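Bench notes, afternoon.
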Amino acid sequence: MVLFDYRHKRLLIIAGLILFADQVSKMMVVGAIPLFHSIEVIPGFFSLTHVKNPGGAFGFLAASGSNIRVFVFIFVSMAAVFFLLYVYMKTPRKYKALSIGFALVFGGALGNMTDRIRLGEVTDFFDVYVRHLHWPAFNVADASICVGMSVVLFYFLFKKDIFE
């Protein structure tokens, strides 16, 4: 049995790049944009907006006590990371796109978990909107999770690897 094969390298490279891009982009936003301020990139559609999310997706549990919230989200994040690692390792080698999807989700989960451990909250900054209708702000880790889950969902809906 090989302890470190190309699938391990794929996971480390993809998750490592996502984690790196996520943390660097968050540091850049924190250093360049004051909290709750925006830089309009595409008028009427996209801005870089520095916000903090103490809760989960869509602000879930944001109003809860900070100790409970931090404990819950760190615990859930760690459980998700270990589950994704397990699922990734159990994915048959022939399903390259599926394993890439899991690696993207894994990297995104690591990015947001890192913020929760370090700061107790997550930095978000991508702000997509049409006029006054705003999608909740998100970050590189969130985008990676969404893209990865889209790949996984595609596989499970169509039972086909996109690289076949």
